[in-house]
């Protein structure tokens, strides 16, 4: 029986320690802070935007810009920006929180209910983001008690200063009083602009960030709170169908237009040479408002002057160093980016639409294989065209296989020993490692007695061109005519098979961009 008081005391100590982990302090002062009214200037700002203190809210946070936005829903059901607050401190790097202790602030979509608001916070006031949510758990991520709170110290949280969290807390409290059951907290690595997407396109987190952009696009295109679901290890966004668990919810036309517009702009930026980079922080960041003698813009001009009391700043030495920008090269370099065709790719308003991140397509009008008549027009016999000769001459390879995709006949060569001018565009449809068809190989080389007078004939690739060439007899000089023989239906059994391995050398001469 004597053990019972000891066990009870131990249980109380454990409960208090867990309460401290949950940022709880049980002071009368904390309750008084939580009852502070919304500042009169903010109430007046609401009136100018046809908002009321008890209208629903939505909050968005952006790490790279170190800003937090508070939006309010108007009478028309659409959200409008009320106010933007500078973030005093966030820790870690751009990217999601993965595991307990990594100092990462979370990224994603989190519902904040009244029970997550903490009026007794050790950091003035706070609310819990709710990490990990269903998406985080599906991806095996761990961590807990990640807050938006006061002071300027962060170990995975968003620190807002006491003054800022007091105002945000009061705005949220009034929204709950007006009947809102939970508000949505959207956390992003940066603003989801085409410029940022082009800049961070090779970052290891780009797939996750593009998934977040789907929710951002929905909100920015419609000014409505997106319904959020989780399908497998991905977020899904939409209306009622997404809330009902649909893995492929309907995409609103306005959202689709915004996404397409952004993708085109990203492609244009990449085509203009926008570098792919990654930002590496010593340990998170802070808005310039707290580091400069005056606000960088008029956005925070209404904030207290001098700067508000920031309390204890976590790792100030890390804030002294600016983030390092590192260029990231793609793991696999494309041959080249497809260019827009001004004649065929014009949109409704005449704007050229570039092809986004596409590999080069075959040329629209590749140089065809010359006919016997064109070859016979040469003034003097040329050196034999062999497979090996294309090893260091991409134009020769194009001459041999250019007619694979059809097109207008090529101009006659200017010099007897020179091959016809060839389109320098690579033949993307043929892989360098793939062997050529047997029938094509058989015709890559002319008969031993005819190679000096005519270019080889490739059967099966362009039947129309071949029949036309056979219908007209070739005009050749008597010296060459004496040894001329008709092309055989099959390749010679001897004298040519020893050169077969060089077929791959032709494909390897494809120029890379």
From TrEMBL:
Q: Name one GO biological process term.
A: regulation of cell shape
Q: Where is this region: Disordered?
A: 444-513
| All copies of domain L,D-TPase catalytic, residue ranges | 57-185
Q: Which UniProt keywords apply?
A: Cell shape, Cell wall biogenesis/degradation, Peptidoglycan synthesis, Signal, Transferase
- Active site at which residues? 149, 157
Q: Which Pfam families match?
A: YkuD (PF03734)
The answer to whether the entry has keyword Signal is: yes
What are the TM regions of this chain, as residue ranges?
none
Query: Keyword S-adenosyl-L-methionine on this protein?
Result: no
Q: Which InterPro entries match?
A: LD_TPept_cat_dom (IPR005490), Transpep_catalytic_dom (IPR038063)
Specify the pathway.
Answer: Cell wall biogenesis; peptidoglycan biosynthesis
The signal peptide here is 1-20
Start-end of Low complexity biased regions: 445-456
One molecular function GO term is:
carboxypeptidase activity
Name the domain of life: Bacteria
Task: Spell out the Basic and acidic residues composition-biased ranges.
Answer: 483-502
Identify its protein family: Belongs to the YkuD family.
What is the name listed in the Swiss-Prot or TrEMBL entry for this protein?
L,D-TPase catalytic domain-containing protein
Which organism does this record belong to? Methylobacterium tarhaniae
């Amino acid at each position: 029986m004597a053990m019972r008081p000891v066990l009870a005391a131990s249980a109380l100590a454990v409960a208090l320690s867990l309460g401290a982990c949950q940022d709880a302090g049980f002071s009368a002062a904390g309750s008084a802070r939580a009852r502070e009214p919304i500042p009169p200037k903010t109430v007046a700002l609401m009136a100018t935007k046809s908002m009321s203190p008890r209208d629903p809210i939505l909050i968005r946070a952006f790490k790279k810009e170190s800003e937090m936005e508070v939006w309010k829903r108007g009478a028309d059901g659409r959200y409008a920006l009320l106010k933007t607050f500078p973030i005093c401190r966030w820790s870690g790097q751009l990217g999601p929180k993965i595991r307990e202790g990594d100092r990462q602030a979370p990224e994603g979509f989190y519902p904040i209910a009244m029970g997550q608001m903490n009026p007794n916070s050790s950091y003035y006031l706070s609310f819990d983001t709710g990490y990990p949510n269903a998406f985080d758990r599906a991806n095996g991520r761990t961590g807990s008690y990640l807050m938006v709170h006061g002071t300027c110290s962060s170990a995975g949280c968003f620190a807002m200063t006491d003054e800022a969290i007091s105002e945000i807390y009061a705005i949220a409290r009034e929204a709950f009083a007006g009947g809102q059951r939970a508000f949505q907290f959207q956390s992003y690595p940066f603003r989801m602009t085409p410029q940022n997407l082009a800049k961070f396109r090779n970052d290891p987190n780009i797939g996750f960030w593009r998934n977040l952009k789907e929710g951002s696009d929905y909100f920015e295109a419609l000014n409505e709170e997106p319904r959020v679901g989780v399908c497998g290890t991905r977020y899904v966004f939409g209306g009622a169908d997404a809330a009902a668990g649909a893995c492929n919810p309907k995409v609103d036309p306005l959202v689709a237009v915004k996404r397409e517009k952004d993708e085109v702009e990203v492609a244009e930026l990449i085509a203009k040479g926008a570098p792919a980079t990654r930002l590496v922080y010593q340990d998170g960041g802070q808005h310039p408002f707290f580091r400069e003698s005056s606000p960088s813009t008029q956005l925070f001009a209404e904030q207290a002057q001098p700067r508000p009391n920031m309390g204890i700043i976590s790792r100030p030495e890390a804030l002294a160093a600016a983030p390092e920008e590192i260029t990231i090269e793609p793991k696999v370099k494309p041959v080249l980016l497809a260019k827009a065709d001004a004649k065929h790719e014009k949109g409704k308003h005449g704007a050229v639409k570039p092809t986004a991140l596409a590999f080069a397509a075959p040329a629209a009008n590749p140089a065809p294989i010359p006919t016997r008549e064109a070859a016979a027009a040469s003034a003097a016999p040329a050196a034999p065209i062999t497979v090996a000769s294309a090893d260091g001459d991409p134009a020769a390879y194009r001459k041999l296989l250019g007619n694979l995709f059809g097109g207008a006949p090529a101009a006659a060569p200017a010099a007897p020993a020179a091959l016809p001018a060839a389109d320098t565009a690579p033949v993307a449809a043929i892989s360098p490692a793939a062997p050529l068809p047997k029938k094509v190989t058989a015709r890559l080389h002319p008969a031993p007695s005819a190679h000096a007078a005519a270019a080889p004939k490739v059967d099966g690739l362009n039947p129309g061109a071949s029949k036309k060439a056979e219908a007209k007899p070739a005009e050749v000089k008597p010296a060459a005519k004496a040894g001329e023989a008709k092309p055989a239906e099959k390749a010679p059994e001897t004298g040519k098979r020893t050169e077969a391995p060089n077929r791959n050398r032709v494909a390897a001469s494809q120029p890379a961009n």
